[in-house]
Amino acid sequence: MTVCDLVAHFRLHELVDRGEEGKSYSTRNRCLSVLNKWILPYWEATTLTQVRTVAVEDWLSTLSLARGTKAKIRKTMGLLFNHAIRWEFTCKNPISGTVRGSGVRQSDKRQRIPEVLNEREFRSLQAALGLRDRTLIWLATCCGLRRGELAGLRWEDVDFDELTVMVRRSIVDQVVGNVKTEASQRALPIDKCIVKLLQQWRCVSKYVEPEDYVFATDSNRAGDRRGKQPVSLAKIMQYWIQPCAAELGINKRIGWHTFRHTFATLLYRNVEDVKVVQELMRHSSSRITLDIYAQAVTSAKRKAQERVIRDVSVKQKSA
Question: Could you tell me if 57 and 99 are in contact, meaning their C-beta atoms sit under 8 angstroms apart?
Answer without folding.
Answer: no
